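Backbone Fold Data
Goal — fold tokens
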Amino acid sequence: MTKKTIGVLVMSYGTPESLDQVEAYYTHIRRGSPPSAEQLKELTDRYEAIVGGFFPLRENTNQQVSALEETLNREHPEYEFRCYQGLKHASPFIEDGVEAMAKDGITEAVGVVLAPHYSVMSVGGYIKRAKEKAEETGLSIRFVRSYQTHPSLIQALTERVEKALGLFEGVPAKGIRVLFSAHSLPEKILEMNDPYPEQLLETAKAVAERAGVEAWQFAWQSAGRTATPWLGPDILDVLETLKREEAVENVLVCPVGFVSDHLEVLYDLDIEAKRKAAELGIHLERTESLNTDPLYMHTLSDVVAAEVERKG
């Protein structure tokens, strides 16, 4: 009996593959408006600061897509799963991934984003683009909207928090403040009753409870530089407040909004936030990223398979 083939469109933000692609990448993010020479230098400098300009997100994403395909076919052998990549701001774009599935003769697919939390401005935008292209090509596609409290995701994050707490030698757990963080979005999402902030808090609360962490709070990071206000408080401001008002000396950051090592983690946290913490006399550590952790791959495999079954 021939197995039914299911296409899986694995979507993520994307990143340039090399330093000479930074300008084109940010021009796409800025909807065709190139960054100024000053902005471009700042961006390039940030990438160069990460292990000499190595671009980990692209390779990490490639590995995640490959690992997900392997996990899906191992855990759900009744189907043949074929994973395709679709990026928001780099090639292969979301539309390219949908087109590749159609060209390969795939008629049924599931889309999933490498981000556990839904916002109309993030995951919603990915889904909209994929849906429009699928309609053009005649591909039937369903989408995983969010998976912020999947037990395996919570377990993976909990294990990372527990491991990282051990980096504060001789400090009792109550002497460490845990900051859960995620990418900020424009404040206007609050007027839209967007579920993003609430879903992030659900994840943070579940991880804190499971890890037995009592002293924790949420902080935003990596806000865009636009005229409109973004969700806060920013993590750098939170560090200052913690030191000034509570004399906190030990901080563990768990970036629950990110699933991979990339600029917002390797620069904004590992360089910028650590620099700020050092200035304040705070010992700051970060939990390891999920990347291709088997528990995260199982999370994705489970939610994708559930969509297939739901369709029947």
